[in-house]
Amino acid sequence: MRREPRYGIDNKGQAFFSFGDPIPEQRWANGPHLFYGAMVEKPTNDLLAHKGEIYRREYGLLRAWLTPAEQMHITLIGLGDGKSDDAIDTACRMGGLMQAKPFDVCFDRLSAFGGGALVLRSSDHSPALQHFWRKLSAIVHDSPLQDFATNRLEPHVTLLRDRGRVPGIQERPVEPVRWTVRSFALIHSHGGKYEFPGTWQLNGQDDAHAVM
After folding, report:
1. How far apart are CA 64 and CA 130, in angstroms?
2. Contact 75, 24 (CB under 8 A)
3. Taking a C-beta distance cutoff of 8 angstroms, is the pair 116, 162 a contact?
4. SS3 letters across 146-185
5. N or C: which end of the chain has fewer CB within 10 A?
6. Beta strand pairing call for 65-66 and 157-161
7. Domains (ranges, CATH) in the chain?
């Protein structure tokens, strides 16, 4: 089937015609962003990336930036941008104090979060995830990191970002996605790339084994 050309204005103010979807340009934070998160393993990360593409087309978010499958994660606690090496070392030490077993999660609601993020969240808050999050939050807030930590960040999975149109999307239930969280990490994000200063496997013995 022949496609109609699309007319638009690019980021430099130049008019263009296109017969395909636009290639979105992600605008990165001013400096490296530091946060705790739980990376999603295969094949669930591929499933989440596919759902992001489905919602992108359903809502006509053709300029949205999709989270790549290999970067799919549950955001746990944000520590801000441009943190020093000392702050990163402290965050690694605090992560190593966490004690936990693997736990199951279920994400079944589609929501718009701040910054134009379209995310999945849990309607019942995944009790085991909430328990893990509260324990990690307590460790962080009882440390030198307390001034950096975000206080109102609910655990969520970001599927895509579109600052212009996502904020108008109403929350709704969606088909549940379930998986088991077996590790969490300190993630250093900058320019679309992830580094992992600390990763901790949840070993089922009520403590976390650090892999640095």
Report:
1. 29
2. no
3. yes
4. HHCCCCCCCCEEEEEECCCCHHHCCCEEEEEEEEEECEEE
5. N
6. antiparallel
7. 32-201 (3.90.1140.10)
